[in-house]
Protein backbone atom coordinates (compact mmCIF):
# COMPACT_ATOMS: atom_id res chain seq x y z
CA UNK A 1 0.00 0.00 0.00
CA UNK A 2 1.36 3.44 -0.94
CA UNK A 3 2.25 5.84 1.91
CA UNK A 4 -0.28 8.40 0.64
CA UNK A 5 -3.03 5.77 0.76
CA UNK A 6 -2.06 4.84 4.32
CA UNK A 7 -2.23 8.50 5.34
CA UNK A 8 -5.68 8.96 3.80
CA UNK A 9 -6.96 5.78 5.45
CA UNK A 10 -5.54 6.83 8.82
CA UNK A 11 -7.10 10.30 8.42
CA UNK A 12 -10.48 8.82 7.55
CA UNK A 13 -10.31 6.47 10.53
CA UNK A 14 -9.43 9.41 12.79
CA UNK A 15 -12.42 11.33 11.42
CA UNK A 16 -14.80 8.46 12.13
CA UNK A 17 -13.45 8.08 15.65
CA UNK A 18 -13.76 11.83 16.19
CA UNK A 19 -17.39 11.91 15.08
CA UNK A 20 -18.16 8.87 17.25
CA UNK A 21 -16.46 10.48 20.26
CA UNK A 22 -18.43 13.68 19.73
CA UNK A 23 -21.70 11.78 19.51
CA UNK A 24 -20.83 9.75 22.61
CA UNK A 25 -19.96 12.96 24.49
CA UNK A 26 -23.36 14.40 23.53
CA UNK A 27 -25.07 11.29 24.88
CA UNK A 28 -26.27 10.05 21.50
CA UNK A 29 -24.61 6.64 22.01
CA UNK A 30 -25.90 4.80 25.05
CA UNK A 31 -25.91 1.23 26.25
CA UNK A 32 -29.46 1.52 27.59
CA UNK A 33 -32.17 -0.54 25.95
CA UNK A 34 -34.43 2.51 26.25
CA UNK A 35 -32.35 4.49 23.78
CA UNK A 36 -34.47 6.27 21.17
CA UNK A 37 -34.86 4.61 17.79
CA UNK A 38 -32.42 5.72 15.11
CA UNK A 39 -33.59 8.57 12.91
CA UNK A 40 -34.65 7.56 9.42
CA UNK A 41 -31.90 7.73 6.83
CA UNK A 42 -31.64 10.92 4.82
CA UNK A 43 -31.03 10.69 1.10
CA UNK A 44 -27.85 12.52 0.24
CA UNK A 45 -27.64 14.75 -2.81
CA UNK A 46 -25.95 13.32 -5.88
CA UNK A 47 -23.88 15.01 -8.57
CA UNK A 48 -26.36 16.80 -10.85
CA UNK A 49 -28.93 17.35 -8.10
CA UNK A 50 -29.88 20.87 -7.02
CA UNK A 51 -28.18 22.10 -3.86
CA UNK A 52 -30.41 20.92 -1.01
CA UNK A 53 -31.75 23.43 1.44
CA UNK A 54 -28.88 24.34 3.76
CA UNK A 55 -29.68 27.21 6.10
CA UNK A 56 -27.40 27.24 9.15
CA UNK A 57 -26.21 29.76 11.74
CA UNK A 58 -22.90 31.53 11.40
CA UNK A 59 -20.72 32.24 14.45
CA UNK A 60 -22.92 35.24 15.31
CA UNK A 61 -26.08 33.12 15.22
CA UNK A 62 -27.33 34.68 11.96
CA UNK A 63 -28.93 32.11 9.64
CA UNK A 64 -27.16 31.80 6.29
CA UNK A 65 -29.16 30.20 3.48
CA UNK A 66 -26.51 28.92 1.08
CA UNK A 67 -28.90 28.70 -1.89
CA UNK A 68 -29.94 32.35 -1.69
CA UNK A 69 -26.72 33.93 -0.44
CA UNK A 70 -24.60 32.40 -3.21
CA UNK A 71 -27.20 32.16 -5.99
CA UNK A 72 -25.66 32.49 -9.44
CA UNK A 73 -22.09 31.90 -8.24
CA UNK A 74 -20.03 28.72 -8.06
CA UNK A 75 -19.72 27.59 -4.44
CA UNK A 76 -17.25 25.27 -2.72
CA UNK A 77 -18.69 23.97 0.57
CA UNK A 78 -16.03 22.42 2.79
CA UNK A 79 -17.28 20.35 5.74
CA UNK A 80 -14.78 20.22 8.59
CA UNK A 81 -14.32 20.10 12.37
CA UNK A 82 -11.72 21.60 14.70
CA UNK A 83 -10.70 18.12 15.95
CA UNK A 84 -10.18 16.72 12.41
CA UNK A 85 -6.44 16.71 11.60
CA UNK A 86 -6.80 16.50 7.79
CA UNK A 87 -9.41 19.30 7.92
CA UNK A 88 -7.04 21.54 9.84
CA UNK A 89 -4.20 20.75 7.45
CA UNK A 90 -6.19 21.82 4.36
CA UNK A 91 -7.55 25.09 5.84
CA UNK A 92 -4.64 27.26 4.62
CA UNK A 93 -5.11 25.86 1.09
CA UNK A 94 -8.84 26.69 1.20
CA UNK A 95 -8.07 30.18 2.50
CA UNK A 96 -5.55 30.76 -0.31
CA UNK A 97 -8.07 29.56 -2.93
CA UNK A 98 -10.80 31.78 -1.46
CA UNK A 99 -8.55 34.86 -1.61
CA UNK A 100 -7.56 34.08 -5.21
CA UNK A 101 -11.22 33.81 -6.25
CA UNK A 102 -12.30 37.11 -4.69
CA UNK A 103 -15.96 38.13 -4.90
CA UNK A 104 -16.43 37.16 -8.56
CA UNK A 105 -15.03 33.63 -8.61
CA UNK A 106 -15.89 30.44 -6.77
CA UNK A 107 -17.06 31.28 -3.27
CA UNK A 108 -15.91 29.18 -0.32
CA UNK A 109 -17.97 28.35 2.77
CA UNK A 110 -16.76 26.28 5.70
CA UNK A 111 -19.43 24.09 7.27
CA UNK A 112 -18.17 23.17 10.73
CA UNK A 113 -19.63 20.07 12.38
CA UNK A 114 -18.59 21.35 15.76
CA UNK A 115 -19.58 23.57 18.68
CA UNK A 116 -19.45 27.35 18.30
CA UNK A 117 -16.93 27.55 21.15
CA UNK A 118 -14.54 25.05 19.56
CA UNK A 119 -14.80 26.77 16.17
CA UNK A 120 -14.16 30.23 17.65
CA UNK A 121 -11.15 28.94 19.58
CA UNK A 122 -9.80 27.22 16.47
CA UNK A 123 -10.31 30.26 14.22
CA UNK A 124 -8.47 32.36 16.81
CA UNK A 125 -5.40 30.25 15.98
CA UNK A 126 -6.07 29.59 12.29
CA UNK A 127 -8.14 32.50 10.93
CA UNK A 128 -9.90 32.31 7.58
CA UNK A 129 -11.66 35.05 5.61
CA UNK A 130 -14.44 32.94 4.12
CA UNK A 131 -17.80 32.45 5.88
CA UNK A 132 -18.25 29.65 8.40
CA UNK A 133 -21.61 28.08 9.25
CA UNK A 134 -22.28 25.57 12.03
CA UNK A 135 -24.07 22.28 12.38
CA UNK A 136 -23.83 19.39 14.82
CA UNK A 137 -22.88 15.93 13.52
CA UNK A 138 -25.75 13.54 13.23
CA UNK A 139 -27.64 11.21 10.91
CA UNK A 140 -29.34 14.10 9.09
CA UNK A 141 -26.76 16.89 9.36
CA UNK A 142 -26.05 19.20 6.41
CA UNK A 143 -23.04 17.08 5.41
CA UNK A 144 -25.28 14.04 4.96
CA UNK A 145 -27.84 16.05 2.98
CA UNK A 146 -24.94 17.19 0.76
CA UNK A 147 -24.11 13.57 -0.05
CA UNK A 148 -21.64 12.62 2.69
CA UNK A 149 -23.49 9.44 3.60
CA UNK A 150 -20.34 7.91 5.13
CA UNK A 151 -20.01 10.75 7.65
CA UNK A 152 -16.26 11.19 7.14
CA UNK A 153 -14.30 14.45 7.11
CA UNK A 154 -13.17 16.54 5.41
CA UNK A 155 -15.84 16.52 2.74
CA UNK A 156 -16.22 19.09 -0.02
CA UNK A 157 -18.96 19.83 -2.52
CA UNK A 158 -18.69 22.05 -5.58
CA UNK A 159 -21.96 23.70 -6.60
CA UNK A 160 -22.11 25.26 -10.06
CA UNK A 161 -23.46 28.73 -10.76
CA UNK A 162 -26.63 26.92 -11.89
CA UNK A 163 -27.21 25.73 -8.30
CA UNK A 164 -26.52 22.06 -9.06
CA UNK A 165 -23.93 19.85 -7.42
CA UNK A 166 -21.03 19.53 -9.85
CA UNK A 167 -18.51 17.51 -7.79
CA UNK A 168 -18.00 15.89 -4.39
CA UNK A 169 -14.74 15.02 -2.66
CA UNK A 170 -14.12 12.95 0.44
CA UNK A 171 -10.75 13.65 2.01
CA UNK A 172 -8.39 16.61 2.19
CA UNK A 173 -7.17 18.77 -0.66
CA UNK A 174 -3.46 18.58 -1.32
CA UNK A 175 -1.43 21.73 -2.05
CA UNK A 176 -2.46 23.15 -5.42
CA UNK A 177 -5.28 20.66 -5.96
CA UNK A 178 -8.30 22.91 -5.32
CA UNK A 179 -7.88 25.18 -8.33
CA UNK A 180 -7.94 22.26 -10.80
CA UNK A 181 -10.71 20.45 -8.90
CA UNK A 182 -12.96 23.54 -8.86
CA UNK A 183 -12.79 24.06 -12.65
UniProtKB/TrEMBL annotation:
A GO cellular-component term linked to this record: cell envelope
Keyword Ligase attributed: no
Coiled coil (UniProt feature): none
Q: Which domain of life is it from?
A: Bacteria
This entry's Gene Ontology molecular function terms read: disulfide oxidoreductase activity
Is the keyword Transferase assigned to this protein? Answer: no
- Subcellular location(s) per record: Cell envelope
InterPro entries found in the cross-reference section = Redoxin, Thioredoxin-like_sf, Thioredoxin_CS, Thioredoxin_domain, Thioredoxin_ResA/DsbE_sf
Q: List this protein's GO terms for biological process.
A: cytochrome complex assembly
Q: Which residues form the Thioredoxin domain?
A: 45-183
Q: Tell me which UniProt keywords the record has, alphabetically.
A: Cytochrome c-type biogenesis, Redox-active center
- Which sequence ranges are marked TM in the entry? none
The protein's name: TlpA family protein disulfide reductase
Amino acid sequence: MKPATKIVLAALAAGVLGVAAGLWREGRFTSSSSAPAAAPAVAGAEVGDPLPSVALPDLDGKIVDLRTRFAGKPLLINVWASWCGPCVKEMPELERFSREQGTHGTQVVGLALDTPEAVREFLGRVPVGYPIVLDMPGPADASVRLGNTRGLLPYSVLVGADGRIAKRKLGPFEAGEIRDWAR
